[in-house]
Design a protein that fits this description.
Keywords: Hydrolase. This protein is of the alpha/beta class. Helices cover 39% and strands 11% of the residues.
Length: 586
């Protein structure tokens, strides 16, 4: 018996990826982290080369010499609307913008392994066509004319692979574009690359046997998150103006948290999801937990700029989309009532997470941007069921199809998945019926109990009065964790089960003061998940110093535009507060 097939496939795929990075875009060895010199398979297991021997990677694209000063300015000086305006005014061409971002993406890949499919040649060809169109007609091709974006590896792009980190899916290029890819290109956006994910997309650290481990550019000892981890890194490294991920358990919001940027998980039907590869049986997502596609960006304004173009057109491209409107963001004229949810009844956050939630609530209660009332709320009793019900819906097929794919090439599971992913019989139709009925009842109970203020005690009322506009809660119960150590998903899976739109807002970085916070004496763990979460705070905490602290904002189902409005108000308020405090200290 020879070597398992996955080893050869991994080597060939890695060679193919590297061949797509031009020689003149290659980094000097002095810039490349030790861990990046490992093969993809070695990087799965060896973490000692990923320490902070070189500090943050974020500034290297600026100083490595591959981008000239104009290209650095192109990739750093504008938000989405500003860059589109420069192209529309012909002060920048689509080609020079695409070239700058392709070069920056190539640098980011060499530093972090964030890419799976560089599309640089295709991107530059599309950019030249856009420039020709503008010169010939005097009109933009579309409202996103020339905007460089990236998409998660799951989105099919005709002619390239969608491996989702599984070697059995390598060298099997897609025969057509995903609906979102078609929509983006119809608007003039340029897709410059696809980005890395976990093997099978079943955990929160973007690592697999084909492309290796994606590094967090802020702190290589901590995870970049998943499953849209490559997207989070590409956006944080300014290798993309906006990234598009998917979310079924937190896979947009968690990479945003890990990389200190913004993530937006819409309701089902707002952005096309069809045309993605997951390794799952066709039709499973119709009866199980439904993932959604959504943006990861460097500001809420960039998210708004993208959503206002996608949402009204999504139904024309995605069979899975609903009609929708997206008005421009305008100052809120009504008073906002926002609930502060400190725990979900299942897992108590570690002290700095609780502290940042209280800090944010105190700041926004004094907001000069909008009239905001913050009220403390408790988790409805039924909320504890959400993670378990969501997890069972994710696994209705017993993991058999994914494990069959791995068996085809003799590929082993990632270390994190071993012992957690086991082959089981598929769920019977009777059990599936019961599980869906359980989900229905949870949705009814949460709708009645979470959004009423004061909380409703009625169980038979047919009238529902929403009196909370939004809820603030943790993204995770712990800080950005080390590789392969992410804890409970209860704060993110819950809102996929309920189909509530949710978003991540970065607040500030972890300080020495945060590291000195302790649990209250006498506090008892709420569950075995809570006991596990407390371990984060018993270990060496210094590793978390300087890591991003974020909050999650939630609104009721289909209130996606309202979520964007509330996030904008909160974000603006926080920025005013921290900027004024910084000035006062100078």
């Amino acid at each position: 018996m020879g070597e398992p097939a996955y080893l050869d496939i991994s080597a060939r795929k890695w060679k193919q990826l590297n061949s797509l990075i031009p020689a003149q875009w290659r980094l000097d060895d002095k810039y490349i982290p030790r861990g990046m010199r490992l093969s993809p398979i070695e990087s799965v297991h060896k973490l000692d080369g990923f320490g902070d021997d070189m500090g943050s990677l974020v500034d290297i694209p600026r100083k490595c010499g591959i981008l000239n000063s104009r290209e650095i300015a192109i990739t750093e000086n504008w938000d989405v609307q500003g860059l589109l305006y420069e192209i529309a005014e012909k002060r920048l061409t689509s080609e020079e913008v695409a070239l700058a971002f392709c070069k920056r993406a190539a640098v980011a890949q060499q530093l972090t392994r964030c890419l799976t499919e560089p599309l640089f040649t295709e991107a530059l060809e599309q950019a030249r066509r856009l420039d020709h169109h503008l010169k010939r007609t005097g009109k933009l091709f579309g409202p996103l004319h020339g905007l460089p974006v990236t998409v998660k590896d799951t989105f099919d792009v005709k002619g390239v692979d969608s491996t989702v980190g599984i070697t059995a899916l390598a060298f099997k290029p897609a025969i057509q574009d995903a609906a979102l890819v078609e929509l983006l290109r119809s608007l003039g956006a340029i897709i410059i690359a696809k980005t890395n994910v976990p093997q099978t997309m079943s955990f929160l650290d973007s690592v697999n046997n084909i492309f290796g481990r994606t590094l967090n550019p802020l702190n290589r000892s901590l995870t970049a998150g998943g499953s849209s981890g490559g997207e989070g890194v590409a956006v944080a490294m300014r290798a993309s103006m906006v990234g598009f991920g998917t979310d079924i358990g937190g896979s947009i919001r968690i990479p945003a948290m890990c990389n200190g940027i913004y993530g937006f998980k819409p309701s089902v039907g707002r952005i096309p999801y069809g045309g993605t590869t997951s390794g799952q049986p066709n039709g499973k997502l119709r009866v199980a937990l439904k993932p959604v596609a959504g943006p990861i960006a460097r500001s809420i304004e960039d998210i708004d700029a993208i959503m206002k173009e996608l949402v009204p057109r999504s139904e024309l491209f995605g069979h899975d989309c609903i009609p929708g409107l997206w008005p421009s963001l305008t100052p809120l004229k009504k008073k906002l009532r926002i609930g502060l949810l400190l725990n979900d009844g299942l897992v108590n956050p570690v002290p700095p997470i609780t502290n940042i939630l209280k800090e944010v609530s105190n700041i926004i209660a004094r907001s000069q941007v909008a009239d905001i009332e913050v009220v403390d709320i408790s988790a409805p009793a039924v909320m504890k069921k959400c993670m378990f019900t969501g997890g069972r819906l994710m696994d209705v097929d017993g993991s058999g199809p994914l494990l069959d794919l791995l068996d085809q090439t003799g590929e082993p599971l990632m270390p994190y998945l071993r012992g957690r992913t086991k082959r089981r019989p598929p769920m019977s139709i009777e059990k599936l019926y019961a599980l869906c009925a359980e989900r229905d009842q949870i949705e009814v109970d949460m709708r009645q109990q979470m959004w009423s203020w004061p909380p409703s005690t009625a169980t038979t009322s047919k009238v529902f009065a929403q009196t909370l506009d939004a809820v603030i809660c943790p993204v995770a119960a712990h800080p950005v964790p080390k590789h392969d150590s992410y804890g409970s998903l209860s704060y993110t899976t819950t809102f996929v089960l309920l189909d509530y739109p949710t978003g991540t807002i970065p607040v500030r970085n972890m300080t020495e003061t945060d590291l000195n916070l302790e649990f209250n004496a006498g506090d008892k763990p709420l569950s075995k998940f809570d006991e596990g979460n407390r371990q984060f705070w018993k270990e060496d905490r210094k590793i978390y110093l300087g890591s991003p602290l974020s909050v999650q904002v939630v609104t009721p189902r289909l209130h996606d535009h309202e979520l964007c409005q509330v996030m904008s108000v909160i974000d603006s308020t926080l920025k005013r507060h921290y900027q004024s405090n910084t000035k006062a200290m100078l």
